[in-house]
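We read letters as residues; the fold follows as tokens. Both lines appear below.
***
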Amino acid sequence: MWLVSTVMWIEPGIMIPDGAGYVVYLPSTYLDHDLLFFNEWQRLGLIRNGIPVFKSVAPTGYLGNHWTVGPSMLWYPAFIVSDVARNIVPALRMFARDGIRLPYNLAVIAGSAFAGLGTLLIGYRVARRWFSASASWAAAIAIWFGTTLAWYSVRDAAMSHAASALACALVVLLSLRLRESPTTEAAFSAGLAVGFAALVRIQNAAFVIVPIVLLAVVDWRVLARRAHTFVAGGLLGVLPELVVSSFIYGHPLGFASIGVRAIGWYPWTRFWGVETLFSWYHGLFSWTPLAAFGVIGVVLFWRLDRPLAAVGALSFVIQWITNASADRAFWAANSFGARRFDNCTIFFLLGVATLIAKWPRIVIPIAAICCGWTMLLFLIARRVDLNAYQNFGELVTAIRTNPLTSDFGVLVFVRSMRTVTLALLIVLLAVNVAIAAAILKASARLRVIAAACYFAVMTAFLAWCGINGSSRIERYSALIARSRAFHASAGDEIGEENLLQNELLYLRKSGRTAEAAADERELHELFRRRAAAFRAAGVSAR
């Protein structure tokens, strides 16, 4: 089912700006051997009138990029294969060797698609510890079609969410193994998984509580004895981003600094607690009601494994509070559903498996209905602007008035070169599967050594790229000076006005007139300030 839906619904492309922020690490390091990103931003159309949009120049002279390097490390092997294929396959030579066009984009999609599969397989493996095979695979299939996982595995696959779901699922799996056998290798592996999860998305760092709580319940003394090994693994896992951030921002934690607006749009200015879960504007339970059943199931799982149920519920609450407050755009801007709950996918799966195992005749039909609703939104999402607020009635009308049958077929979103695209996609998926199979066949010790070596080599490679970039900044001096002059008066990022306009639309349609009026004044002031900055820079505001 995973393979069929992947072959049907993959959609080449890069979401702007988030996808661009994650993808640029690949061509910048592999082709240019630097971390400057200016030419990649130019290729993606994100330098307009000589001014970078969505990101500003950091004090070091580098183009700011808070989107982390973690997803690119997952995509890198397939990316290299794509570059080789582009050089030797005549039909692919028509594409420029820029690290962004179709052959390279397919490498990213294949990596994210495989991450989606890996999440399901790990979830199945975890669920099988308590439930039957049928309940476990039914839960896995439901999660694929009933959450945002499929969308971010095959549609907006250039973003971090499939990789994030995989990384956090891996944290849970390795934490359970650590609880069962608290060896040095297990502690290092769990720490490395936590570090990698944070490397993919910074808010995944909260998953550090999973191994700590599970091991502490067994014996605090064991936790103390393995703490240094666990911390060493965690530091190695997150080290690539610390190195990248040191070059870009001049500080290892610069990518997570409020000063560079890396952690959200006007963070902690509002708390959208109810809206994040229940609003028709990408609310978690409204768009993916299966997630609500997953949360209920996690609570019921308490009777089977109290520590894991407790840490699952706590992880969900932490993410809920974070998503409701760390970014004013609770709807997650350009998004399909509540994408920022991707890290809880493993717990949603475990919760759904709990309910299916307990009441299969009741839960399976309900789960099918939940999946059906989410898939209807999935199928209309490219025909209706779901990034702007649509209430329930408008969503239903969009479903009723848009034909859905055209979305079923081979590569329905690939407009040309379907045979070559399909062949390359299958090869790239096979590369990911082969790498995973080789890892699984190796001994536990060899797996740990291989993973540690990969992170160490990538860290050294990124440091070398950073050094190269530092010696090349001078060639971008005019662009840097122009950008700094503009952003000094216009603000950090061009693009936040779109978020404010969408928030204004949401408030108006929700009948919150006082808040809408305040947003309108804020938007007017933002446009006034930006217009003045454009005039001072002598460029068009378009």
